[in-house]
Amino acid sequence: MDTFGSASEPRGKSPNSSAPNNSAPDSINQKLVDLGRYRDKRLFLAIYDHFAPRLKSYLVGRGAHSEIAEELVQEAMLSVWRHSSTYNPDKATASTWIFRIARNLWIDRMRRDKAHLLTSLDSCPTDLYPDLSFQPSLAPLDGDTLKSAINNLPQQQAQLVYKVYYQGKTHREIADECDIPLGSVKSGLRLAFGKLKNALGGEL
Amino acid sequence: MKPQHHPDSSSLMSYAAGSLPDSIATVIACHVSTCEQCQRNVAEAEQLGRFLMESSLPEQSEEESQHIDLAPNARDDILALIDSDEYVEPQVVVESDVQEAPSDVPLPLQPLLGKSLDNLLWKSMAPGLKQFVLPATSGTLRLLRIAPGTSMPIHSHTGSEVTLVLRGSYYDEMGRFGAGDVADLDPEVEHQPATATGEDCICLIATDAPLKFSGLVPRLLQPFFQL
Ligand SMILES: [Zn+2]
């Protein structure tokens, strides 16, 4: 079963797209670097056309309503426009950088929505994803290798990874939903992470 | 000193995916903020996340794709947004050599707690045991301050429970846990922690359970209050 869909080629069908469909990782990274330098709107739109539909799909998968997802996509892309000059291609691929932005916005939104649950007066939020002084440089991962590693995971481990990343489920939610012990959720994820790392030569 | 005990990779994965309960995510963030080994693992798990995000355009029927496709005016809207945007990236302040006063409050908690654990309004729970409850939008989050040489009852964890030592240390069957170390036990592992002598042990403890039914504290209090 192909839990994750095809991944290596972008299957982006963005009907609005007028940009050439050139979305090899290197070229996207370069576009983001150039955007930081030249503030060119055509470059921005090329990045937008590539990522916006994927971000929306990702957010809807996590349970965001269509309008909220769209709002967050725009917020994320505005962030990309604003902060592109701080993007460092040696530290992360463009898509990892944008993934972090979207993830953090989604979490901020969830926390804001639940802020009424905070009994404490000092509901000043903690910073869950601080900018760290040490940002490891990782070799860019090979999409095809990762895709086949994911497809080679035992079904249950693939399901766990899917539920964590696509559905945003906590370990306990997964345990309840699948009626398996919490310890099995943790060990299944642990094994999956190890296998994916191994398949990529010790580095994801 | 480098931490000896790290979060389980299942927790680091979920942290990278943004899928931990608020309380547990906070504890993981506090450890990761000082642990290069875990920063690397999180960065790797983020790479996996972005790969899955990038490939998150599944085969769609016409009907579904209307749900996923952006609104027709989305592209015009974002152009209007960036046209009127006046944000200016702040100049990065180069860190000077001036050393900040050392603090055992983890970086992610400093906006909330300031720089001193000693200035908090600790609430006494039992002889030798004080707590300070922190806000979390899901799960429970608290600081426990345990007097030196205190032995706790044997217990296991029914849900997710993650502990980070901020000051002092304790021992259990797994070894010694000092400042920076994380206990991210599989549930049902029984252990009997005891604090070392010399100084208070201060831990940050998160559970994924609602406040009333949760975690270590009620069980800790059982012998005192016969709960
Ligand atoms: Zn660590």
Automatic annotation (TrEMBL), chain A:
GO terms for biological process: DNA-templated transcription initiation. The keyword Phosphoprotein does not apply. Residues 1-28 are annotated as: Disordered. Keywords: DNA-binding, Sigma factor, Transcription, Transcription regulation. NCBIfam families: sigma70-ECF. PANTHER family: RNA POLYMERASE ECF-TYPE SIGMA FACTO (PTHR43133), RNA POLYMERASE SIGMA FACTOR SIGZ (PTHR43133:SF62). Belongs to the sigma-70 factor family. ECF subfamily. This is RNA polymerase sigma factor. It comes from Parendozoicomonas haliclonae.
Automatic annotation (TrEMBL), chain B:
The gene is chrR. It comes from the Bacteria. This is Anti-sigma-E factor ChrR. InterPro entries: Anti-sigma_ChrR, Anti_sigma_zinc_sf, ChrR-like_cupin_dom, RmlC-like_jellyroll, RmlC_Cupin_sf. It comes from Parendozoicomonas haliclonae. Pfam families: Cupin_7. Residues 118-207 form the ChrR-like cupin domain.
